[in-house]
Amino acid sequence: MAMATHTVFEPGIIHVELAVSDAAGLASTTHGHMDDEDHEPLPNPRSHPEAISQITTRRNDFPKPIWMYASVDIYGKSVVSTEGANWRHHRKITSPPFTEKNNHLVWQESVHQANSMVASMVSPDVERSGSVWNVAAQAMRLSLHVISKAGFGVRLPWPHEEVETKIPEGHTLSYKDALSSLLENIIVVMLTPTWLLRRSPLKIHKAANESFLEWGKYMRELYEQKKAELQTGESRDGMDLMGALVKGAGITGETNGHADPEKAASPGSKQLLTDDEIFGNAFVFILAGHETAANTIHFAMMLLAMHPQSQRRLQKDLDDILGDRPSSEWDYDEDVPKLFGSMCGAVMNEELRLIPPVVGIPKTSTAGRPQGLQLGGKHVTVPADCSVTLDTVALHRNPKYWPHTSEEDLLDFRPERWLVDGGANGHHDHGHGDEAHSNVEEGLDFDGPDKRPDTAPSLFRPAKGAYIPFSDGYRSCLGRRFAQVEILAVLAVVFKTWSIELCVGLTMSDEELDKADEEVRREAWERADQRARELLRTGMMTIITIQMRKGKVPMRFVKRGSERFDYAV
């Protein structure tokens, strides 16, 4: 579940008190240690955009506590688990694939995988699906498939698409099973010492170790393939994250797997990243590249099922933008900017505001050097060597920086708050390709902070530092645009043809529902809605990202026009 934090600044340490809150979050209160000894309450610097902007842009003054990320290094160091000059080294090599050109492939694969996901849950010739309890797992599978194909060139099939294939020689698991098992057992792999994982007789340890070794073998084979392609001058279309890592590391036939940056400038010198670092970065691309998008897709579907009025408005915008064209004719350059600036983008942004993937972003102040912040017109001193948490949950609910009709409004899902330019009456500008794309690459500095906007020009633009679902500044998420394109594609595919409703089957059968009058149906829907809200309050927990880990919300896919609960609008 989300953590609302309360911080007191004192010389030498920042005490962080953790208080349990629901997924909607609670705003924090903070008192600051000020140079003038004035101890009046200040706005919480961890949920104050001005302070967040200062902290995230002063990378050397507020570095990332990399010790917290050591468990991610199961294959090697990466851009996620390094700091300082070492991080800059990783960032320069890992950034180039994340460009607008490569997002075309992300879009195409996301559309393909979204269609396959829907086909796996509901037949196209029926009006409504049965109860779908595993929407979260399906979204996770979809996102994993997208990063596997778009990033590594390996397309993974859905169960209804699978054909029997032999496990490659030298392997005990298929690529798909190795990757799926690795991610299912990731906490075991991260927290169990390697020597114990290899020797333990426990079934869970054996499965975790097998998947860890098998996926490592597949990455080694892909790595060798990319090296061979570089040596022969072959090139591949698309994103090709492994190829970019190999190329960026300066690998040639004369390199030997050991990094030596000082010698890398000359031909025939050693490579810029070790083999382990290449595998470490490949792993975090997979790990980080699928959870954020998957969680957003899952919660967006759930929240839209709980808010049919917003769902209908989304579908109207999809009709306006995409018309009657099949998804195979949707065009990235023409359609994505309009989707980004429509209710589709608003739904994505609002879900990320309400349920950010990471509820607290850790930073530290440098050892032996206190740091000053300008906050509320006053100078606040952060003592040296202190832990600082950027409170995403409270930040995204600070009423000073968000459109709202009441204080409670910020605790609810209301994507309409993002619509400007006449959005209040249902008519808003979806944006145009040139305008919406004009700043996509501008502000992208591989050696500096990502200055690109998080939202489309036609949507509400939060104050700088007020909206950080992908963090901010130098350490912001490399794959932000990748995730946004994927989320938009999935929402478009699903809601262009289908509506999603809360399943009331826990309290009423289909036969009873068919015979029930409107009042009884409403009561059944309201019970399902209350159960979903309760799980959003009590069932949320963070391991890597925040997910609903205690309970599930069943949903139904319903052909548009066959909805049962539109009276709930």
From TrEMBL:
<feature type="region of interest" description="Disordered">
    <location>
        <begin position="422"/>
        <end position="458"/>
    </location>
</feature>
<dbReference type="GO" id="GO:0020037">
    <property type="term" value="F:heme binding"/>
</dbReference>
<keyword id="KW-0479">Metal-binding</keyword>
<protein>
    <recommendedName>
        <fullName>Cytochrome P450</fullName>
    </recommendedName>
</protein>
<feature type="binding site" description="axial binding residue">
    <location>
        <position position="477"/>
    </location>
    <ligand>
        <name>heme</name>
    </ligand>
</feature>
<dbReference type="InterPro" id="IPR001128">
    <property type="entry name" value="Cyt_P450"/>
</dbReference>
<feature type="compositionally biased region" description="Basic and acidic residues">
    <location>
        <begin position="426"/>
        <end position="440"/>
    </location>
</feature>
<dbReference type="InterPro" id="IPR036396">
    <property type="entry name" value="Cyt_P450_sf"/>
</dbReference>
<dbReference type="Pfam" id="PF00067">
    <property type="entry name" value="p450"/>
</dbReference>
<feature type="region of interest" description="Disordered">
    <location>
        <begin position="28"/>
        <end position="49"/>
    </location>
</feature>
<dbReference type="GO" id="GO:0004497">
    <property type="term" value="F:monooxygenase activity"/>
</dbReference>
<comment type="similarity">
    <text>Belongs to the cytochrome P450 family.</text>
</comment>
<dbReference type="GO" id="GO:0016705">
    <property type="term" value="F:oxidoreductase activity, acting on paired donors, with incorporation or reduction of molecular oxygen"/>
</dbReference>
<dbReference type="GO" id="GO:0005506">
    <property type="term" value="F:iron ion binding"/>
</dbReference>
<dbReference type="InterPro" id="IPR002401">
    <property type="entry name" value="Cyt_P450_E_grp-I"/>
</dbReference>
<keyword id="KW-0349">Heme</keyword>
<keyword id="KW-0408">Iron</keyword>
<keyword id="KW-0560">Oxidoreductase</keyword>
<keyword id="KW-0503">Monooxygenase</keyword>
<dbReference type="InterPro" id="IPR017972">
    <property type="entry name" value="Cyt_P450_CS"/>
</dbReference>
<dbReference type="InterPro" id="IPR050121">
    <property type="entry name" value="Cytochrome_P450_monoxygenase"/>
</dbReference>
